[in-house]
Amino acid sequence: MYFFFTLVKKSYQSLEVNSTINMKQVSNRKLGRNILTISLIFILTLSGSIFAQDGDPAKGKSLFNSNCAACHKLDKKMTGPALRNIEQTLADEQGLDREWLAAWIRNSSAVIKSGDSYGQKIFDEYGGAAMTAFPQLSDEDISDILAYTAQEPEVPAQVAGAEAVGGATGADSGISNKVILGGLALLFALLAMALFLVRRTLNRFAEAKGVNLEETKRTPIWKAFAQNQFLVLVTAIFLLLASGYYVYGYMMQVGVDQGYQPVQPIHFSHKIHAGDNGIDCKFCHSSARVSKTSGIPSLNVCMNCHKSIYEVAESTATEEYSKEFYDGEIKKLYAAVGWSDEDQNYTGESQPVKWVRIHNLPDFTYFNHSQHVTVGGLECQTCHGPVETMEIMSQYSPLTMGWCIDCHRQTNVKVEDNAYYTKIHEELSKKYGVDKLTVAQMGGLECGKCHY
Ligand code: HEC
Ligand code: HEC
Ligand code: HEC
Ligand code: HEC
Ligand code: HEC
Ligand code: HEC
Asked: Per-residue pLDDT tens for 18-33?
């Protein structure tokens, strides 16, 4: 603001000098230039601060899931407190700021040891359970996580009948976009107001100095602007760069479905099955070990258990999903396989469930599960994230070519106890003169390995 007023004052001074020698042209130019400088500075500083403060909730979500979800939920107390709106709550109720939060998240026991009274209090409240330290999280990571915790609760998935499968909710980026657009709209409104005020003030000064405004009638600002070739050039370059930036960002997103989380015909919770009840992934995705695809289990696999599990326990219900909701979903499973719970037999009237496919590589690529899971010895979670915590399945990794390649560059092939590799390994490690081979050195970057 101080800067702003100096600029106004300067314009006024130039007006003062000019009015005496009556150099209309110069005064117009200067005025135009000053106003434009003001606007540019405004746009840059304000947009800068909008982007810096507003973390990306989509990124925050995956950071939260991989780092925090083991102990925290948004809306429910677990090992640690519920974290929905934590930043706001701590600011309102305890007067603690982002700095405190960052220090806490990076190393909560250091905060407690420093004698922080709130830290001590909450630590005692949770029976002295210590939170993991996360020194590796950057300011941006923390801002992303907090942006995610500040999101409105998701409306429980509206589950349609077995045949209605559309209605993908897509990635979570919509919200942050809205915030940015809203911010920009506000910005331009402020800018327009500021310009209006500048103009009025200048007119007043001019009048007070006895300048005859009719006589010095200014060329309109846009004309002054158009006449100044330098300004036109700078603005054009600025606009070009800005639009280039957005187009590039958009293009890079095409075909990347990270976070894709469609509504499924039956609400199926991996958290309840693979997490709470500890059912092995391969019990349902049995082909992952031996074949190219993992596949979705057939409903017969479900019925191994669900002939006898016709309802969920009271304790399974959450604030978000009631017992009635879950029981209703099991009824949908019965309807789909044609199981009559009263008669305890099949009616013969079944309708297939059309699960919406989430992970999907383009047709021209080749990906093989057994090669990664059985031969490579990778955990499902390395690529699919903390599936056992997902109430609703979503795509965790970007599945781009860069993602495949990065891992192939970094991952050492597990050759121990693997007869197939003993010989190849010896030959190749001699060739590269290393102890350990990365997948890349084994040929994992050759186009033909992944492309038909
Ligand atoms: C190993 C379990 C564990 C993990 C993982 C964990 N926390 Fe915590 N967190 C806790 C516990 C327990 C508390 C309660 C205070 C205490 O006992 O230290 C807590 C407290 C907090 C608080 C203070 C909440 C309040 O109401 O004042 C915040 C904020 C927080 N955690 C954020 C995070 C974030 C962000 C992550 C992930 C980057 C995370 N925690 C990961 C266990 C965990
Ligand atoms: C009780 C059976 C069952 C178990 C156990 C299970 N899943 Fe699933 N999985 C399913 C069903 C049914 C679907 C399809 C519905 C959905 O997407 O939620 C699915 C979908 C998936 C998908 C998405 C498939 C797609 O469309 O791209 C992945 C990835 C996945 N499971 C991984 C795992 C992992 C990893 C584990 C172990 C931690 C696991 N599953 C355990 C039944 C199971
Ligand atoms: C190296 C990374 C990686 C690992 C490890 C991995 N997956 Fe996948 N998974 C993928 C990719 C990539 C796709 C998409 C495949 C496609 O579209 O052809 C996929 C797709 C799936 C699907 C969708 C159906 C299908 O077969 O295409 C399921 C279900 C699945 N994975 C489950 C699992 C399970 C269960 C495990 C562990 C036993 C596992 N995945 C381990 C990368 C991985
Ligand atoms: C190994 C046993 C087992 C298998 C196989 C199994 N379930 Fe379940 N299922 C359970 C258990 C246990 C619960 C939770 C019961 C509780 O909480 O009281 C459950 C709960 C459910 C629920 C209610 C909670 C939710 O996730 O929405 C649905 C719906 C469900 N299962 C569908 C399926 C479907 C569809 C399949 C097949 C793809 C399947 N189950 C396979 C054991 C199994
Ligand atoms: C998390 C790490 C990881 C990711 C991500 C990953 N891979 Fe792999 N990949 C491996 C490992 C480890 C091996 C070596 C397995 C072995 O021992 O043969 C491998 C081997 C391969 C091979 C065989 C290479 C050879 O020389 O025989 C192909 C093909 C392949 N991966 C394709 C893909 C594709 C396509 C993707 C992405 C969709 C992908 N991988 C993502 C870890 C990964
Ligand atoms: C480790 C596996 C892997 C290797 C090796 C690999 N690619 Fe790919 N490539 C992929 C995957 C997966 C995609 C799909 C990416 C997507 O859908 O975003 C892809 C996509 C592409 C595309 C489409 C454009 C795009 O980015 O979506 C081109 C072109 C391509 N690859 C060329 C090559 C060439 C040339 C090589 C050899 C230098 C190569 N690839 C090696 C996995 C691989």
From this structure: 444 444 444 444 554 5
Measured in Å, residue 301 CA sits from the centre of ligand 4 at 10
Question: Which ligand approaches the C-alpha of residue 266 most closely?
Answer: 4
Ligand 6 atom nearest to CA at 403: 12
CA of 401 from ligand 6 middle (Å) equals 5
Q: Which tokens go with 211?
A: 């300048």
Distance of alpha carbon 188 from its chain centroid, rounded? 27
CB atoms within 10 A of CB 331: 15
| CA angle 35–194–234, rounded 5-degree value | 30
Choosing from 301, 382, 383, 405 the residue with most ligand 3 atoms within 8 A of its CB, the one to mutate for a pocket test is 383
Instruction: Express each pLDDT in 225-277 by its tens digit.
Output: 888 888 888 999 999 988 888 877 766 655 567 777 788 899 999 999 999 88
Q: How far apart are CA 428 and CA 279, in angstroms?
A: 39
Enter the tokens of residue 363. Answer: 């047709």
Determine which residue's CA is closest to atom 1 belonging to ligand 4: 305
Q: Is 314 exposed, middle or buried (0-12, 13-18, 19+ CB in 10 A)?
A: exposed
Q: Which residues of 29-41 are buried (b: 16+ CB within 10 A; e: fewer)?
A: bbbbbbbbebeee
Please, which residues have CB within 8 angstroms of residue 83's CB and are 6 or more apart in sequence?
68, 72, 73, 74, 149
* 367-376: pLDDT as tens digits: 988 888 887 8
Instruction: Decide whether any atom of ligand 2 lies within 6 Å of the 284 Cβ.
Output: yes
Burial of 104 (0-12, 13-18, 19+ CB in 10 A): buried
CA 372–ligand 5 middle distance (angstroms)? 6
Cα 174 to ligand 6 centroid, rounded to whole Å: 28
